[in-house]
């Protein structure tokens, strides 16, 4: 053949494609990328984990140890590492906590698989062994549930706050005794008769700078960090109308010229405009509306007539806040001018202006039948600190939702992981095929949790692991790492436990993500479309 025509895969794909195949090129490279990603998250595990300073593509600064936020803002490009991020995001959506556990376990499992591959095992054998071990681990996990943990009072503030302490302490260590009762109170206030129907959106967080975290409190209702536009500050049992655009005199899209010959015509022109606007506001008032929500600016003349008809006006520039307000008051926001239809009008039990920490806020209180709302007002010195507290509070709210569905708990502080590692190692020794090596490595991967907790707390990880294995061999299966003293003990004595569902989903999602990565032997990437090349990841240097 002349001209050096391409053959094989090159003849099928466009110029500029990438093709990576083979054990060394594809599988090992994928494992290395995933291990690097897991290492980033691993050092943030536990109450003494380190924070990460992430600057996203919009140059916004995040200082946090919340794995979910870190992974979202990193914008991972590597296709294999993206699978781990997707597994972590699935855990976040399902439980709202435990994303770091997913990433750390994935990294450790893939690191152990790398050693088995170099020893000559096939990826299929490792994947099958991991899958078998995961199924057995989920069975064992059910046997490790703390007896009596399912007898849980979902409406008792003290009981709930003791259960959600762990989720808060892993993000803002030392603040859990302040935040846990607040989250418990806010969640119980809005919890429906059937806890399975608890909606996390009914508990809001508002950050008001100033004072300290000790001054944070719960407000029964929805809080907007805005004042009303007019002089009316308090209404009760009010009908509400919402408009996505501003309320002002209408303007034409095209420029026009109006020729006015005398003062009488000028006076009539402005009067006509005024009468039209008054007619518009009067038609809203005639519909029984007492509160007007506007997504845009409210003109001076419109404000005059709104005051004249005793209507409270609230400007809500954020479309998300407007959407939440409409949802909580059962209002349909209008995108066009005109009086609202009866089915578009909402209702509020009470709407008033309260001063919170020197900031005037509009507080909406709603009847339970309309869907009660609670707001946790977070106070703090800096925006970054309050953002981190908000993330911890959101994790705790998600924990409450999970508790409403399945309140079972398992021992914390790495106790569950060490017991799983010990039992799976015994299970592996009873297997006869090559899968036993994969199951052994799967068991060893669980050691990453107590080891990392010890390392992040400045303790000797080898001594801690030996002490834990010794305690569990004696039958003390609830013994975990005490990060303050370094001695192994049962953390349930301090009301520190982990959610059973969180561990269950973490093991399930981790195993699925790892087996997917291991079964990839080729990466084929088409030439990228026009535009700027992505930064980092698999892009060309």
Question: Kindly, what is the distance between the CA atoms of the first and last residues, rounded to a whole number of angstroms?
Answer: 34 Å
Mean pLDDT over all positions = 84
The number of helical runs is 17
Low-confidence runs: 536-541
| Radius of gyration of CA atoms, rounded to a whole number | 30 Å
Instruction: Let me know the number of strands.
Output: 18
Strand content: 15-25%
Descriptive tags:
single chain; 541 residues; alpha/beta; 7-stranded mixed sheet; 17 helices; 18 strands; disordered C terminus
Task: Describe the model.
- By secondary structure, the protein is an alpha/beta fold.
- It is 46% helix and 16% strand.
- It is built from 17 helices and 18 strands.
- The protein has helices at residues 9-12, 23-42, 67-74, 79-94, 99-118, 123-143, 157-169, 176-190, 263-286, 300-308, 319-329, 383-405, 415-429, 435-445, 448-456, 461-473, 500-518, and strands at residues 18-21, 52-55, 61-64, 203-209, 217-220, 222-224, 234-243, 289-294, 312-315, 333-334, 346-356, 359-365, 374-380, 409-411, 479-481, 488-490, 497-499, 522-525.
- The strands form 6 sheets. Strands 6, 7, 8, 9, 10, 11 and 12 form a 7-stranded mixed beta sheet that branches.
- α5 (99-118) runs parallel beside α17 (500-518) and α6 (123-143) crosses α14 (435-445).
- The longest helix has 24 residues, at 263-286.
- The radius of gyration is 30 Å and the shape is elongated.
- The model is unreliable at 536-541 (pLDDT under 50).
């Amino acid at each position: 053949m002349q001209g050096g025509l391409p053959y094989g895969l090159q003849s099928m794909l466009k110029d500029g494609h990438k093709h990576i195949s083979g054990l060394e090129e594809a599988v090992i490279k994928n494992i290395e990328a995933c291990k690097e990603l897991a290492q980033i998250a691993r050092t943030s595990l536990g109450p003494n984990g380190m924070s990460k300073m992430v600057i996203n593509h919009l140059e916004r600064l995040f200082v946090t140890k919340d794995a979910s936020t870190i992974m979202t803002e990193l914008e991972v490009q590597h296709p294999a590492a993206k699978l781990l991020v997707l597994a972590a995001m699935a855990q976040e959506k399902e439980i709202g906590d435990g994303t770091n556990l997913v990433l750390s376990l994935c990294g450790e499992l893939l690191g152990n698989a790398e050693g088995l591959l170099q020893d000559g095992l096939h990826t299929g054998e490792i994947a099958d062994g991991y899958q078998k071990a995961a199924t057995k681990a989920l069975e064992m996990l059910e046997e490790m549930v703390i007896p009596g943990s399912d007898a849980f009072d979902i409406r008792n503030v003290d009981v709930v706050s003791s259960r959600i302490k762990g989720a808060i302490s892993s993000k803002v260590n030392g603040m859990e005794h302040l935040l846990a009762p607040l989250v418990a109170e806010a969640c119980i206030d809005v919890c429906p008769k059937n806890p399975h129907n608890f909606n996390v959106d009914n508990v809001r967080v508002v950050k008001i700078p100033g004072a300290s975290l000790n001054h944070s409190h719960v407000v029964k209702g929805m809080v907007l960090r805005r004042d009303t536009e007019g002089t009316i500050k308090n209404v009760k049992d009010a009908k509400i109308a919402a408009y996505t655009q501003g309320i002002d005199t209408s303007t034409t899209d095209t420029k026009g010229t109006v020729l006015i010959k005398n003062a009488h015509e000028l006076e009539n022109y402005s009067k006509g405009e005024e009468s039209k606007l008054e007619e518009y506001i009067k038609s809203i008032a005639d519909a029984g509306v007492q509160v007007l929500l506007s997504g845009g600016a409210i003109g001076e003349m419109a404000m005059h007539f709104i005051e004249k008809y005793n209507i409270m006006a609230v400007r809500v520039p954020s479309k998300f806040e407007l959407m939440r307000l409409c949802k909580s008051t059962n209002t349909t926001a209008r995108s066009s001018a005109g009086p609202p239809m009866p089915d578009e009008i909402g209702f509020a039990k009470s709407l008033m202006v309260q001063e919170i920490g020197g900031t005037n806020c509009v507080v909406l209180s709603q009847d339970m039948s309309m869907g009660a709302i609670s707001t946790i007002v977070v106070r703090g010195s800096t925006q970054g600190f309050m953002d981190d507290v908000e993330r911890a509070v959101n994790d705790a709210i998600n924990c409450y939702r999970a508790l409403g569905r399945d309140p079972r708990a398992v021992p914390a502080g790495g106790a569950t992981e060490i017991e799983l590692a010990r039992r799976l190692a015994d299970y592996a020794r009873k297997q006869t095929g090559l899968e036993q090596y994969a199951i052994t490595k799967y068991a060893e991967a669980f050691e990453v949790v107590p080891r990392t907790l010890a390392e992040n707390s400045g303790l000797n990880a080898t001594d801690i692991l030996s002490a834990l294995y010794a305690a569990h061999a004696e039958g003390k299966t609830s013994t975990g790492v005490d990060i303050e003293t370094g001695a192994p003990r049962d953390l349930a004595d301090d009301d520190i436990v982990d959610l059973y569902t969180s561990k269950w989903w973490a093991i399930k999602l981790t195993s699925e993500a790892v087996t997917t990565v291991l079964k990839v032997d080729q990466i084929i990437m088409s030439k990228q479309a026009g535009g700027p090349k992505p930064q980092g990841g698999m892009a060309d240097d």
